[in-house]
Amino acid sequence: MPAHLVLVHGSRLSSTQWAPQLPLLDGLVTVGLVDLPGHGVRAGEEFTLARCVEVIDAAVGEAPAGSNVVLVGHSLGGFAAMSYAAERGSRLHGLVLAGCSASPVGPGAAIYRAVAQ
User: Fold this and answer.
1) Which residues sit opposite 95 in a β-bridge?
2) Comparing C-alpha atoms, which of 60, 17, 11 is closest to residue 36?
3) Complete edge-to-edge strand list for the sheet that includes strand 94-98
4) 35-74 burial, b for 16+ CB within 10 Å, e for fewer?
5) What does the pLDDT look like over 16-29, one tens digit per residue?
6) Cβ distance 74 to 8 under 8 Å?
7) Of 1, 75, 88, 116, which has the most beta carbons under 10 Å away?
8) CB contact set of 24 (below 8 Å; sequence gap of 6+)
9) Mind listing the domains of the chain with CATH numbers?
10) pTM for the full model?
């Protein structure tokens, strides 16, 4: 079965974060890009973790029929991807997390801890 990657960007970025990778993936997999609430095309939306899960779910739902969906999250996108997988992981074939944590620590991570609660 063909693979479909759903790519979720990091904090203060947008789906354009993945532009350098797209040519490398061309012809190998299909790709869906996500802008989380408060970022990119969704800059005007309030950021909540529940809304992130909804946005990711919509992107997963746009995968070509019969494809194996792999959710890829970086930083904040990884945190949101973990939340998605915890709630709706049965829709995924795989999960890739980069530069993120299930339990953000340190003074700079206070905003992430607030969102996680």
Assistant:
1) 71
2) 11
3) 30-34, 3-8, 68-74, 94-98
4) bbbbbbebeeeebebebbbebbeebbeebeeeeebbbbbb
5) 999 999 999 999 99
6) yes
7) 75
8) none
9) 3-116 (3.40.50.1820)
10) 0.87
